[in-house]
Amino acid sequence: MAFTLLNTLIFLSLLILSLARASFADVTVIDATNKLSLHLDSDETMMSIYDDIEAFDDERLSVSGGRSLLWWRMRYYISYGALSANRVPCPPRSGRSYYTQNCWKATGPVHPYSRGCSTITRCRR
Known about the structure:
The protein contains 3 helices and no strands. The chain is mainly alpha-helical.
């Protein structure tokens, strides 16, 4: 009987100590979390460097200053002929279009300003 009573007392004392320690640990963990957290949402030193910059407005540029400042807007394109592996673009200043079949071997007069009748041009010249 004494052995059972002793086991019960030890069990109850360990239970009470573990409950007390658990409640103390919860408070300690919460306090440590509050002390060590970075508070990024409210810290003024961690604000984005772009928060104070106003949006860039293209309409404010003058025409003369706009040409020098907008050089980055130019886009360079590669022709379809240059992109194809087996085809070299037409010779420069030949007057022939890149869309001309075998423009290196083409003969006859070149009329770069007259267009044929097609769906796009609607037979207009």
